[in-house]
Amino acid sequence: MNRIKEVLEDKGIKQMWLADKLGKSFSIVNAYVCNRRQPSLEVLYQIANLLQVDVKSLLVSNVNSSKKN
Prior knowledge:
Elements: H1 4-11, H2 15-22, H3 26-33, H4 41-51
Helix pairs in contact: 2-3
């Protein structure tokens, strides 16, 4: 899971702008934003760079998820 949608909204940036900067189609970027598809690590770092955020801020932590013992 990723937080690309939240970061885009916080920064007031449109998916179309991100798609253009990444050189990817709108449908691919929309799939990333809607968590239907996850970007590769390389693309995730490109997105973080374009949005001027730490790559960690684009990820959803699973540290707090409950563990079964």
